[in-house]
Protein: DUF7036 domain-containing protein
Organism: Dendrobium nobile
Amino acid sequence: MVGIRRVSSVRCVIVLLFTIGVLISTIFWIAPITDFGSRFIPDDAHAASAEIQASFILEKPFSLLALHARRLEYDIFEEIGVPNAKVSIISMHPTTSIKSTYVAFGVLPEPRNASISPPALSLLRSSLIELVLQQINLTLTPSIFGETLSFEVLKFPGGITVIPLQTSSIWERTKALFNFTVSNSINHIQDNMKKLKDQLKIVYVQMTNVNGSTIAPPVTLQASILSDNESGTLLPNRLKQLAETITDEDIVSDFDTCTIRRRRRSTATIMSFILSHFM
């Protein structure tokens, strides 16, 4: 009788240990895991050092998304993936609304000792810019993730240039070309683009951040502005108006113009004296 009890006890211990082992394996298989329901731990320790990073917001609770991180990585890669690359989630956390979640991800070489080819980088850069401009959508599994909002590029090697939808071709009308370097982000300028175009009579504009970020300053803008005559020049009063408009905080909050450069087709003339003379 005692022998039967010992055998039974041993069996119970074995079953218990097996159950615990399965449970632990399941927890790590679901990785990345969450800590205290609000902290995200990525499954790739190198994700945070990715040279290419972007972010967006999902109108889903963090507790749900954390359980589907691998599916999210798969969906993102299916949309923007390029050869010799993989997508890894860097961070996730609730926004000010507990019903939505901020997601940041990185694109890394796969395998690690490989490199992403220049053509693939160019294609990826174009895709990210189109997502920023909402020319395409980041389509994820609808039943789990819903729709993406506020897509931004955090960093991209070689910089990033964003050209918003233009109402006119840069060559359609007589113009004067200017470069503005401002301590604002591409995202901030985008939000104020209509007002900026109306005030400066901009026909064409492109925005460049040398660090490849749409949310960090500085930004260099190349703008095509309607000129005052057929020769493509601007009269002194118009130059003064431009200087005042560019530095007017009512137009774009916190615009801090560092330099203004006016270009003609064959020469380039530094125009930073406009600010110092007319401010």
